[in-house]
UniProtKB/TrEMBL annotation:
PROSITE patterns membership: THIOREDOXIN_2 (PS51352)
Signal peptide: none
Highest taxon of source: Bacteria
SUPFAM superfamilies linked to this entry: Thioredoxin-like
Lineage: Bacteria, Pseudomonadati, Pseudomonadota, Alphaproteobacteria, Rhodobacterales
Protein known as: Thioredoxin domain-containing protein
UniProt-recorded Gene Ontology molecular function terms: antioxidant activity; oxidoreductase activity
Domain Thioredoxin: 4-157
One family name in Pfam for this protein: AhpC-TSA
Length: 169
């Protein structure tokens, strides 16, 4: 597994979204971005976390773009979006190579009832407008998730005070 290094460019990739658009990483943008990776439709902890994100989404999007991505098919991602009423940009089909390029932990399904493909364990990436990583949070399992209120508060502080990247080694 390649460990992502804050202060360096995020891996370049383009991911499809359920609405027919794309999420592009590794290129400059006008705004800060926050990318959340979730395990997929099979994960109830992911749903709780993403429902909390959706509830506070306006506070996030006032400050930065927010995208959420999994390895799920478009159909599974759409089912989640419809069932839970998510309003964030929702990507799908994250490949194993892309997971590894982001430094994510990759898991095999425990059974066919869980899911039918490898999937990424959770991750969160704050990306500066120049395309470099400001913050990296990666978990090897579903139970470890960032506190959304604390994370947003910290990101607002970093953005408003142009704080340097920390923990680069």
């Amino acid at each position: 597994m390649t460990k992502p290094i804050p202060g360096t460019a995020v891996a370049q990739m383009t991911l499809p979204t359920v609405d027919g658009g794309t999420i592009t990483l590794g290129q400059p943008k006008e705004r800060w971005s926050m990318l959340f990776i979730y395990r997929g439709r099979h994960c109830p902890r992911c749903k709780r976390f993403l429902n909390k994100l959706n509830a506070v989404l306006p506070a996030w999007t006032d400050r930065m773009d927010v995208a959420v991505v999994s390895a799920d098919t478009r159909q599974k991602a759409l089912e989640d979006q419809k069932e839970f009423g998510w309003n964030f940009e929702l990507g799908f089909d994250l490949s194993e190579d892309q997971m590894r390029a982001l430094g994510l932990y990759v898991s095999e399904p425990l059974s066919g009832t869980e899911t039918d493909r490898v999937f990424a364990e959770p991750g969160a990436f704050a990306i500066r407008p120049d395309g470099t990583l400001m913050l990296v949070e990666i978990s090897n399992g579903p139970a470890a998730r960032p506190d959304l209120e604390e994370l947003l508060d910290g990101m607002i502080f970093n953005i408003e005070n142009d704080r340097p990247v920390r923990g680069t080694a």
